[in-house]
Amino acid sequence: MLTRKVLASIARRYDTLMSRAMLRALGVAARPEGGAAPKPCAKRVCDAKYEGMRWCFENHGSPCR
Prior knowledge:
The chain contains three helices and no strands. It is mainly α.
């Protein structure tokens, strides 16, 4: 099992909603003290394979109709 410290260090590598949610769940400040910007080495995920994923999760109508 991974420790909270290891999970926090993994989450800090990325600047995504999921990594910020993980940091909040661990009770760790998402940004360093003073509200500084994320580390320059933080990765922002932007990949063509995720294009259209939002559409997949939208509710286009109830299946019960």
